[in-house]
Specification:
The complex is a heterodimer of chains A (about 425) and B (about 260). With about 425 residues, chain A is an all-alpha fold. Chain A contains 16 helices and two strands. In chain A, about 75% of the residues lie in helices and about 0% in strands. The chains are: A mainly alpha (about 425), B alpha/beta (about 260). The complex binds adenosine-5'-triphosphate and magnesium ion.
């Protein structure tokens, strides 16, 4: 820090102590991450764009399927270089997403500063050796740093005048074109209309459901509800403590921040795997034991990930005022948690839990389709067995159940708000 | 001042994040029983100063002696024991909105309660009676079981005062206690502080925005500007020239009646 008399800033703990070393490494990792995030976003964005554009071009113009049209290493070099150029001389998409921009100490970066940054980033950023020092070498030598976006008094530039905006628009355009090319062939659209008769059996059976299976199906439905209840309850037990570790405002400092990052990362990976995939994983895991157990596990994992995110976001939005006030009374840390934080989160937590339970009822059905037990498994068995009248009965039951739970959970949540 | 109760000695606070020098080498002392008013422009460091005294904010450098103890040196556990004798009220009241008035007032006893009892919410009967008595004192006995988010601003601040009273404080820190209130309500709240000061002998340090309130209630005024002490003296000593020095050349004094 410049501009302050000597001794104003508490010295950092020495390198040689364990804590000092840990802090130093954490600080460097944090700096590297600050550069890595937008860079990876830009590289991934440009690569995805190239692949989609190539695919579209090949599909419509060449009438063939192709993804690269150039050797893979040419693409890699191209997008890496493209990302560096974009980040050095403009305001890239990745920089926009992470909310940072290149800033010089003296105001707007000049062309020569940008050129220096461009060259130095190759030498020290890309190779990683620049991050040995804080601030990184390429920052020191170019005079430019990837700083947090400053609030500007100028009117925002419209998207079609920014490179990031144009890129996003082009990206969406190519995606649409490619998607249409993949999924929509003329024949399939025609078939949707000409072959409607083939599903007639199915529809006819649906309106004449077989009521004789009502009892067995009802039992499976109860299993499904229990699967959802158990998965939700066990998920809450794990998710509540984890949510505190995943709240940015509670996890500060060189020890808290890595834990936060790890928990958040693990949760977003777990969440991005759909429950149906988890169900298949667990079915294999518990050696094809076709039972609700695998389904419960699948819903459980996904619910934990989802709830931790919802809970943690609520924790991050709590009012700091009561924390300050309760601390000021001389209360201990647990009391602060109990009296300043918990009252602010109980109702939202219950509300999120009900919401997730509602989702789990529907998901439990889907998970059943792959053999995770319950009503879904019964449904898929009837469908494969061409027992459409029985399938119709099950579908009616599912609709009623989902509708009832939806209504119930909405009413309960309205009460809590 | 023979035996100062609170001594602030070369207090400096740097916020590393914003690289802000919020307090610079601030020194003053307060005698027991004083009603000290801190004035200064927005951003002059009033809140920072008050929070350094009970260490809601860690001072960067300097000492704060409270009743002969250097609070800047205390371990967290011993600091908590000191804090329970320091009441604090806030501009935004800082109540737990979802809790009742009495629930909020009872939290003033948390510093005196063993941890496990606090976690169970098992307050002694004496504390509950005391809470009702303190609500009575601030004229809110009938609102005891009402959730505080249903109370008006003035009522909420009085709940805040009752919470501070529960601590049997020796010192009361009030950070802009009336800035969110209208003039009439401001006076009623300030009168409770005055009463605590006169009747219970609580030393009060309050930051205020209006000089007229500072003159009316303070026994002494200190003024901050950019984290430095620019005035220290009796309310009568602030004349027009001093006023302009504290608030800037263009400022006009506004009355709160
Ligand atoms: N947590 C923080 N991080 C960084 N800077 C801060 C922080 N809190 C306060 N500051 C800065 O410290 C300075 C003093 O702030 P402080 O809140 O003490 O002023 P104040 O006199 O209470 O102002 P106000 O009348 O607006 O409440 C200001 O410049 C403010 O921007
Ligand atoms: Mg303030």
């Amino acid at each position: 820090m410049t501009g302050y008399p000597e001794g104003f800033v508490s010295p950092r703990p020495a390198w040689t102590t364990g804590r000092g070393l840990w802090e130093a490494v954490a600080r460097r990792a944090d700096r590297a991450g600050r550069y890595l995030a937008p860079f990876l976003l830009d590289v991934a964005g440009l690569a995805a764009f190239w692949i989609l554009a190539t695919y579209t071009y090949a599909w419509y113009v060449l009438g063939a399927t192709a993804y690269l049209l150039v050797p893979w290493w040419v693409l890699l070099l191209g997008v890496v270089e493209g990302a560096i150029v974009w980040e050095s001389f403009g305001r890239s998409w990745g920089q926009k997403v992470v909310g940072r921009e290149l800033a010089s100490g003296s105001g707007r970066p000049t062309a020569s500063e940008r050129l220096r940054y461009f060259v130095l980033w190759h030498a020290f950023g890309l190779t990683g050796i620049g991050f040995v020092t804080v601030p990184p070498l390429h920052e020191r030598l170019s005079g430019l740093a990837l700083a947090r976006e400053r609030p500007s008094s100028l009117a925002p530039v419209p998207w079609y005048r920014t490179s990031a905006g144009l890129f996003t628009a082009a990206f969406l355009g190519v995606t649409m074109a490619a998607a249409l090319g993949v999924t929509l062939t003329w024949e399939s659209v025609v078939r949707l209309f000409t072959q409607a008769g083939q599903s007639l059996d199915f529809w006819r059976a649906l309106v004449r459901p077989d009521t004789s299976i009502l009892l067995e199906a009802g039992r499976d439905m109860i299993v499904t509800v229990f699967m959802a209840v158990l998965a939700t309850l066990f998920a809450v037990v794990v998710a509540v403590p984890l949510s505190f570790l995943a709240a940015r405002n509670l996890m500060r400092g060189p020890i808290g921040r890595p834990i936060y990052t790890a928990v958040r990362g693990a949760m977003s990976i777990a969440r991005s795997i759909e429950p149906i995939v988890w169900a298949i994983i667990f079915l294999v895991w518990v050696t094809a034991l076709r039972s609700p157990f695998a389904g419960i596990l699948a819903l459980w994992v996904h619910s934990i990930a989802d709830l931790v995110k919802l809970y943690a976001e609520r924790l991050e939005a709590i009012d700091q005022g009561p924390i300050e006030a309760i601390t000021a009374t001389g209360a201990g840390r647990l009391s602060v948690l109990r009296y300043a934080i918990v009252p602010q989160i109980v109702n939202p937590y219950i509300s999120f839990t009900l919401y997730r339970w509602d989702i789990n009822i529907r998901m439990a059905t889907v998970v059943g389709l792959v053999g995770g037990g319950g009503i879904g498994q019964r449904l898929i068995n009837y469908i494969w067995g061409v027992q459409y009248r029985q399938a119709g009965m099950v579908m009616i039951l599912i609709v009623l159940l989902v509708w009832a739970i939806d209504y119930l959970s909405a009413r309960l949540r309205a009460k809590l708000a | 001042m023979a035996n100062p109760y609170l001594v602030v000695d070369n207090l400096t606070k740097v916020y590393e994040r914003g690289q802000v020098l919020a307090l610079r080498d601030l020194s003053f002392s307060v005698a027991k029983g004083e009603f000290l008013v801190v004035i200064g422009l927005s951003g002059s460091g009033k809140s920072t100063l008050l929070r350094c005294i009970n260490r809601l904010i860690e001072p960067t450098r300097g000492r704060i002696w409270l009743d002969g103890t250097d609070v800047t040196r205390l371990s967290p556990a011993r600091m908590r024991r000191v804090r329970r004798k320091i009441g604090m009220i806030f501009q935004q009241f800082n109540l737990v909105d979802r809790s009742t008035a009495i629930g909020n007032v009872l939290t003033g006893r948390l510093g005196y309660l063993p941890g496990w009892r606090a976690l169970l919410g098992w307050f002694p009967k004496a504390d509950r009676e005391k809470a009702l008595a303190n609500l009575e004192r601030v004229g809110l006995r009938d609102k005891a079981y009402v959730r505080v988010d249903q109370l008006s601003g003035g009522q909420r601040q009085r709940v805040g005062i009752a919470r501070a009273l529960m601590q049997d404080p020796d010192l009361l820190l009030a950070d802009e206690p009336v800035s969110a209130l209208d003039p009439a309500t401001s006076h009623s709240v300030m009168q409770y502080l005055e009463q605590m000061n006169r009747q219970d002998g609580v030393t009060v340090i309050a930051s205020l925005h209006f000089l007229s309130l500072a003159r009316r209630y303070g026994t002494r005024i200190i003024a901050l500007k950019d984290g430095q002490l620019v005035f220290d003296g009796p309310p009568t000593a602030i004349d027009n020239a001093k006023f302009k020095e504290i608030y800037g050349e263009d400022a006009e004094e506004v009355e709160v009646r």
